[in-house]
What we know:
Layout: H1 6-17, E1 21-23, H2 24-31, H3 36-48, E2 52-64, H4 66-74, H5 77-88, H6 93-99, H7 102-115, E3 118-120, E4 123-125, H8 129-144, H9 153-157, E5 163-175, H10 177-181, E6 192-193, H11 198-202, E7 210-211, H12 230-244, E8 248-249, E9 255-257, H13 258-261, H14 292-304, H15 319-322, E10 325-327, H16 332-341, E11 347-356, E12 368-377, H17 383-397, E13 402-406, E14 412-422, E15 425-435, H18 437-440, E16 449-455, H19 456-464, H20 477-481
Parallel strand pairs: 6-7, 8-11
Antiparallel strand pairs: 1-5, 2-5, 3-4, 9-10, 11-12, 12-16, 13-14, 14-15, 15-16
Residues 330, 332, 409, 412, 430-433, 451-453 line the site of phenylalanine.
Amino acid sequence: MAELTNPERRMLRAMQARDGEWTLSEILETCDWDDQAIAVSAGHGLSNHGYVKISESSEKSVILGSEGEKAAENGLLEAKIWDFIQSKGNATMKDLSDKFERHEAGPGVGLLKRLGVSLEGGSFSYDDAESISKTISERTAFIQSPSIDNPLIDHFKGRKNLIEIVEMVTRTWKITSTGKSVPSSDLEEVVKIAEITPELLQSQDWKNAEFRPYDVSLEASMPRSGRSHPMQALIERIRSIFLEMGFSELVDDYVQTAGWNMDALFIPQDHPAREMQDTFYLDNPKQIKLDPKLLKDWKAIHEHGGDTESTGWGGEFDPEISQKGLLRTHTTVNTIQYLAENPEQSCRVFAIDRVFRKESIDKTHLPEFHQIEGIIMEPGANLGMLVSTLKTFYQKMGYPEVRVRPAYFPYTEPSLEVEVKWRGRWLELGGAGIFRPEVTEPLGIKDPVCAWGMGLERLAMLVLGLDDIRQLYISDLEWLRNQPIL
Ligand code: PHE
């Protein structure tokens, strides 16, 4: 037998005791409930089980509107004015205006005129006082106890706010033959335990107790608890993907030298991205001392290619520029230093960290944002490995369609751009490539290095479906609360 709730059991017991139609009030009375909702929901439950049949009939009825209620208490307008005219004997319009408000006198006279009262030369006259009184008292009787069958309904329908016609649905409940056959032993009300307490567990009572099952289909309110910011949650997710793929995380400072941020990466000293309008140079520290040996090596590489086959950029390399303090413009500044410190050890390293560029703020740009940086260094590392690593990463993020296109960076060869397909469009998410010998040789790196740097906020916009990057960093509590938990 299907499991019944206690109210359902009680209601079915009552119905087994008396066959026939039950009205709501009969159920309430017999079951000793004062909450209609209990009866209605028990009735629904029983009907779902096929134990009870619900019949509905709808009926029109009339109730008083706001003006009708006033009229029932103080009399209809035409009645009040009629009484006044009659009590006065020879009433004039002037008398009426002294006694009644303008908004009453006008419409009141209108009503009486339709009943046979005439107004000539400012005074009232009528022929058949008796029939007027009769009509008015019929109307009064109606307002006192309105009924849908009364023909006066048509008259009152035309008057403002006196009555309202409402449709009432009446339900009755009747036990079915299946309902009758439910054994009464199944209809005993049981005490079901909703909450398990230490006391219950310590006592023996739990052995015979029945437990209330969870109803997972019920509407529940959304708990408003603390949670990670969507950006933080996304960072965690990316972190766990790279960790899972065998990478270690690198965390480093964002105050760096132009030397490591640019010279080490063979970015020419006259490169436009180095200009003040693109890079935040620091007043403090304005200068950070670098190892003279490094500066010498970079100078050689930049000016003529050093010991490599490269011809370098030519021109004159200024070691002073290398020692300028700045806010890193990319996280490649950190991976390259990691390689410089560990030039011979194969590695897979990633970083998710903040970078700075002098961008004016708009829908897709922020002066402060994050990059997802990574390197793979090992004997035989190659472009295919780089591309498949990036594809795997985006696949794990939920973007299966990834493509790469040729690109240019001063520090990689070949270089490529990574794009993912989102809502039918290809979106550029970052750059990648294999570090050039001009970068690796001065640092003593022998094995090929795959490297990439991708925008985190761009990816966040895809994941969170945003078209304005600024949404990520404003304290919009409503938006934050409604973000899916990634
Ligand atoms: N540093 C590049 C950027 O900021 C991305 C990149 C990293 C490209 C590593 C190639 C290799 O856009």
